[in-house]
Amino acid sequence: MSQTSPLISAAISLDSRYRTMSDETGGATPRGLRGSVRIRNRAVAEREASRLARPDVPSRTGALGHASRKKSSVSSTPFGILPLNRSVAAELGGDAEEQWCGPFSVARQMIAAREEAREKREAEQKEREEKSSDVYQHPLDEIVEEVEEEKKRKANPSMKWKGKVRETGEKSNFYMKRRRRFARQQQGLDLSRNQRIPSLFNLCVGFLVDHFEFVEGLGAGIGADVRRLICESLVSKGKMNGAAFDTIAEPGIEALEIIDCAAVTQDQLSSALGLLIESGLQALILNHAGRAFGSKAVNSIVSASSNQLFALSIGGAYLLKDKDASSLLEATSSTLSSIEFKACHLIGTSFCMSISKNFAPSRGTGCLLELSLEDVPLTKESLLTMGSASDALQNLKSLSLRHIEGIDDDVVSNLLDSTRNLEAIDLSNNSLLTDGTLSAVRKCNKNGTLRAMQLSGLRNISSAGLEALFTLHIPGLPSAPKLRKLDLSSCSKDAVNDAVFELAVLASSVKAVGNATCAEEVQSKRVSGGWSSLGGLIDVNLSGSCVTDKSMETLASMCSGSLRELDVSFCAFVSNKGLGFLVSELGNQLAKLHIWGNAQISDEFLDGHGRVDDGGLEIIGAWMKRSGKCSVR
């Protein structure tokens, strides 16, 4: 007979007392409870008593907290050795253990699991060692492995690169290392640019900007470069107001470049442009034009009796209407050769029709050489009006269409068919473009004049399309473009790989690609190392691609005398050895290296590459830069 818990015995005794009192009072409790209520109270008491009950006799197995001694690495607990209760499974013959809640119990479980995992790993390692010792090894196996390793080193010379160990003699953390590295870079850049001591020119410009409110005029002899530098300094110091604009935009100057027109009113700009156009203004560049450049400014230019304007660049003019932009191009088409509009959201069909109409050779007007449109809501039908239907773009040297809403493969093919000697093309951030655009780019390079190509953010192009673009000789197609600037950043990750980039570098390095150039000649020149005299890439952006150290070796062998700037940000497969080998093989012309987001690049390269001390190489994205009073990475 099993023993009864003291709480259960107390509950039974209490119920007996209630029953006796009920018999003595004639069937009623002291509070007059009915029989059903008494039965329910008894059931509740029994249930609570059984829930809180503990066995009088301790179990045979002791436990520390939740686990047994044999599974725990902790020898004591804050509560000592606690007895275990037998659950229903234990009463039936099982060996279940009571689980306790709380962070201490969870920690005990983690410790026990860690010990078991360690024992399992050691057993597996021992088993692997026993199996490997049983395998027969030929005496020549080590020699074969060395030969294979030597072949890999010859195929990948970057494997031999090792960073220089620089002992500073003092202990420091990563923060101090980055700080010293940044200071060393700044010191080296100052030495390379001879800017340790400010030049007299910079001192004069700084003094002039600090006291610009007392300047009455700069004079017509001050060139556009100096005026732009003064304007940038005024904007950075918050002194670009209406009075400063009147001082900079004085009659008689040839170029007006204002980087921020927020403090310039419409009346002020229109009156100034009227005087400047009459006095022979040739270049008008207004960045962040805002509300200043609208109908009044256009009327001032259109109503001028004489016009010598050949370069027009307007950015952010949200009041510039489509008809005003069209009339502006019509009035200046006789001399205008460079057009740039950015973030002007009201221009549309009339603007495109004005280009195709006023710059056609049949009119005998000006010759359009540069066309740049960015973030402008032009439809496909509007863009097609500028294409092969007219000859307005036949003399174009540079075409830039960035982030245009209606552009697709048909539009690009139509526009490029009307060009003859295109030297630069920028089609970045147009999501509808595919491999058909790459085919159109190669077909338009009939004279081999293309030197710069930017295809950033084209997520729908593939590696096959890029290979077809850069393959040296394809029957029926013009030669592959011999580029000096190449931007393939933020494309599809698998589109830009080592094979594609090698073809692009090879095409840019060949002196004359055509039917006369065969694979044997290309290979012989590559082996002999005669690429630096033939040309090569100067500016390369491969950000966000899947290129590896193999591409760094390709650049080192084919562009050793030309490469000046390289961006390999967010390229996870480029290592310290690849970048170190590239820097060691390239000449001193390499000036900038962007490595943002590359967590795998460590101090082995940053403090161990061959140009740490000369200061001519600026590595961007690896350490802190000072911004105001705060230091950021």
Strands, helices and their partners?
Elements lengths: L5 H19 L10 H17 L10 E2 L18 E2 L4 H4 L11 H32 L6 H15 L18 H20 L6 H11 L13 H13 L5 H7 L6 E4 L7 H13 L4 E4 L8 H8 L8 E5 L6 H11 L5 E5 L6 H10 L11 E5 L5 H5 L13 E5 L6 H9 L6 E3 L8 H10 L7 E3 L8 H8 L14 E3 L10 H12 L9 H10 L10 E3 L7 H10 L6 E3 L8 H10 L6 E3 L8 H4 L11 E3 L4 E3 L2 E3 L1
Parallel strand pairs: 3-4, 4-5, 5-6, 6-7, 7-8, 8-9, 9-10, 10-11, 11-12, 12-13, 13-14, 14-15
Antiparallel strand pairs: 1-2, 16-17
Helix pairs in contact: 1-2, 7-8, 10-11, 11-12, 12-13, 15-16, 16-17, 17-18, 18-20, 20-21
Helical content, roughly? 40-55%
Based on DSSP secondary structure assignment, what is the total number of beta strands? 17
Mean pLDDT: 80
What is the chains' assembly state? single chain
Q: What characteristic shape results from the CA principal axes?
A: extended
Strand residue content? 5-15%
Strand order of the largest sheet: 3-4-5-6-7-8-9-10-11-12-13-14-15
The main sheet comes to:
13 strands, parallel
Weakly predicted, low-confidence segments: 55-92, 512-520, 525-533, 624-633
What would you report as the Rg, rounded to the nearest angstrom?
Answer: 40 Å
| Count of helix runs | 22
* Derived structural class: alpha/beta
Coiled coil: 106-134
Biased composition (Basic and acidic residues): 45-54
Keywords: Coiled coil
Region (Disordered): 45-80
Question: What labels would you give this structure?
Answer:
633 residues; alpha/beta; 13-stranded parallel sheet; two-stranded antiparallel ribbon; 22 helices; extended; LRR_dom_sf
